[in-house]
Amino acid sequence: MRIRHPLRQVIPFAALLPMALTVIVGYLGTVLWSLRISLTNSRSFPSDTFVGMAQYTRLFENERWLLSLHNLALYGVLFIGACLVIGFLLAVFIDQNVTGEGVLRTIFLYPYAMSFVATGLVWQWMLTPGNGIEQAAHQFGFAGFSFDWIVDQDMVIYTVVIATVWQASGLVMAMMLAGLRGIDGEIWKAARLDGIPTWRVYLSIVLPMMWPTIATVLLLLSTAVVKLFDAVVAMTQGGPGTASEVPAKFIMDHLFGRANIALASAGAVVLLVPVLAMLAPYAYARSRKGRA
Amino acid sequence: MKRRSYFNPARIGIYAFLISAALFFLLPLYVMLVTSVKPMEEIRLGNIFALPLQITLEPWRDAWSGACTGASCEGIRGGFWNSVAITVPSTILPILIGALNGYALSFWKPRGASTLFGILMVGAFIPLQVMIYPLVRVLATFGLFGSLAGIVLVHMIFAMPVMTLLFRNYYAAIPHELFQAARIDGGGFFRIFIHVMLPMSLPIIVVAAIMQVTGVWNDYILGLVFAGRDNAPMTVQLNNVINTTTGTRLYNVNMAATILTSLVPLAIYFISGRWFVRGIAAGAVKG
After folding, report:
1. Is residue A131 very low, low, confident or very high in pLDDT (cuts 50, 70, 90)?
2. A57 touching B (Cβ < 8 Å)
3. Which of A223, A283, B132, B274 is most buried per CB count within 10 Å?
4. Are B182 and B103 in contact (CB under 8 A)?
5. Does residue A233 fall inside a structural domain?
6. A28 to chain B: which residues are within 8 Å by CB?
């Protein structure tokens, strides 16, 4: 017989105390705090003077913020699109019984092990006009070749796309490859019997069947998009001018550089909205499943 | 599987695509390596893809112990040891707490715990920027801001969702009878955890450790904000070396510093290979 100690009942609760504190203080508390600050006129220190939605109005009148949102949207579409296409193509090609599969997989994925800072710095150096790829092209005899996107206000965001796609598409490849391998071989036999061309099978049958993998990849990539900060700091520091500004960097600058924590918090709350919108249907489905 | 005939146009096309893709992926690594062993004169004159005419290890020595960040010129070795000091506890503690959480959630199911876990999972997606300022204030209140303990605590907070999820899913697959048997034998909460569950958890601990070490080592933003000047991790120092230098940029030193900073995660990746992928994939599948 086991004796029911009152203490024993408490232990599981006590063990979860760090988690409870993290949830209540770390997650819920900080979100409410940021929300509160965003409604005040705080500058370097939190203040208790509430100004309603004034910070949000200021935020959306701020050219730099609007530019950063625009950059994020453009970056997000291009980054996710390119990662999906390149990752899927690499996975499909690797899945053709090629020799040296292990080596190829290793090569495609190694950038993911590196930090965004390191990745950004390498690409910065390769893309610097007069120094990297441009100079190399000149020496190969293409005297008129010019590649100055990284210092061009209109093109700089594309260089961030190049560097981060280089970093992350290998991961997409790895996950897509796992997805491809999970598909029943019978499908291929049936398609061959029916004489359907391979590319058609991939596009119309395999791709739709890989929806769960693609959803996971999308989730992973979109979280990375919202977080985009390190790579921009390392590559362009938001420049030239403010041309490659992104929301995460805008918020950090106003928190620590420009002593405008209310405006920064408003920006952070705005960033939270699309995340919650994405999560709400998911959380709802989960709670429904839990009840059933 | 699919067709097996070799040497037809389709196969040549497949290899052509894969090899050119591989070259594109290897290019930056090649440029980094080659640049890091060239003297500056050669970099100024030659193109970035050319092999070095004269190999020098001077840039590596400079990057390690001579490169300047702002006023001091001590290289990034300080950052390396800071990163080690941050990474070791930021790996061990979150794994222990994650394992404990997963264990309590899977087997003891205290009331309200699953709600807590649900909020934690949603919390995993909250943008960092929403949490940063309040966390700065909380840590400052306890005198932990800018300290080693502070940055470790922050890493623990941000690792909590994934670590808990990993272990919860792992323990969910363990037969409940095993736990019942241990209880009938008189095992208490911690006895069962330490003597039964932890020894069984080795595979998932390895995955979690790979995730944490790479993640913490590669972190930039948390280290920048919370670690303070004395504990700045290698990534922060690397960016300082390269982006705040005035005058001529020492590209060879910069590239050597970049490689040095990436060495630990790359080594883990090359050694652990498949586990690395499994870790990321497991972390990605939330809920």
Report:
1. confident
2. no
3. B132
4. no
5. yes
6. 119, 123
Residue B2 lies in a domain: no
The residue whose two tokens read 């005040």 is A40
Q: How far is B247 from chain A (nearest CA, A)?
A: 16
* Cβ separation A19–B101 shorter than 8 A: yes
Domain containing residue B31: 9-56
Closest by CA to B225, choosing from B157, B160, B163, is B157
Give the span between the Cα atoms of B83 and A35, in whole angstroms: 33
B31 and B145 assigned to the same domain: no
Average pLDDT over residues A189-206: 88
A139/chain B closest Cα distance in angstroms: 7
Indicate the number of domains in chain B: 2
Which of helix, strand or coil describes residue B13? helix
Cβ-contact B114, B178 below 8 angstroms: no
Average pLDDT over residues B196-223: 93
Confidence of residue B28 (pLDDT cuts 50, 70, 90): very high
Does residue B61 belong to any structural domain of this protein?
no
Across A41-52, average pLDDT:
86
**Would you say residue A286 lies in a domain?**
yes
CATH number of the domain that residue A183 is part of: 1.10.3720.10
| Residue B83 or A188, more confident | B83
Q: Are B241 and B116 members of one domain?
A: yes
Residue at A59 is within a domain: no
Supply the pLDDT for residue B110: 87
Chain B residues lying within 8 Å of A96, measured CB to CB: 2, 11, 14
A52 is a domain residue: no
Provide the shortest C-alpha distance from residue B26 to chain A (in Å).
7
Length of chain A: 292
pLDDT reading at A1 higher than 50: no
Pairwise CB contact (< 8 Å): A139 & B218: no
Q: Would you call B254 an interface residue with chain A, using a CB distance cutoff of 8 Å? A: yes
Is the separation of the CB atoms in B245 and B258 below 8 Å? no
Under a CB-based contact definition with an 8 Å cutoff, are residues B62 and B77 in contact? Answer: no
Place of tokens 């796992």: A178
* Residue B126 domain flag: yes
Residue B258 forms part of a structural domain: yes
Contact A214, A255 (CB under 8 A): no
Is A170 at the interface with chain B, CB within 8 A? yes
**Which pair of structure tokens corresponds to residue B48?**
């970035």
| DSSP conformation class of A144 | T
**3-state secondary structure string across A204-220:** HHHHHHCHHHHHHHHHH
* Partner B contacted by A285 (CB < 8 A): no
pLDDT tens for A206-224 read 999 998 889 889 988 988 8
